[in-house]
Amino acid sequence: MTKAGISVGATVVASIKGIAFSALMVCAPLMFAQTAEASEGQYLQASSSFPPPTGARTLCKTYSWACATSPKKRISSAQELALVQSVNKRVNRTTRSVTDESQYRKADIWALPTARGGDCEDFALLKKRDLIKMGLDPKKLLIATVLDTRRNSHAVLVYRSGQGDLVLDNLTNSIKPWKATHYLFLRMQDPNRPKNWVGVSNQS
Fold first, then answer.
1. Suppose 33 and one of 61, 106, 155, 174 were both cysteines; which one would form an S-S bond, judging by CB atoms 3.0 to 4.6 Å apart?
2. Domain residues for 184?
């Protein structure tokens, strides 16, 4: 996303971390690492209901699959993880990082990547769409907004595996447990009703 990307109000941040921040969005260049697995029970916990990010307010109308709740078919956990790893690497490899300002002349547009590419939430959307098409349960694929390790605003896709919440990120090919990212998680799609969003507790 751009520096004028995901909008998170001061009240949201105060509720989550007790701090205020400006809604800046930066997606850094791609980096590579080894895949990691989550420890048992390491799931993000919803703290309370919050409105969606500004750019995601019409997401369900634009892409019905982004807010779907039922899988099209059943696949095993081993198949799921293999697909998650494959899709994460493929999308990172084949999609260029392009800011919304550069592409749309607007601050924050949530959309699938174009031929030119996309920013961080566009990467997350593409990964979610492709994994749903392959049979993953949509309720296991949740877009989340975070502050990255430099405390810039960012978006990722959370995969709710049997071992915990794993993070698919356009900044790395490594699929990490959420705590291993060292990100500050702000809010994510509600796993029960993905059209809604919830604040996130960063305590395991």
1. 174
2. 10-201
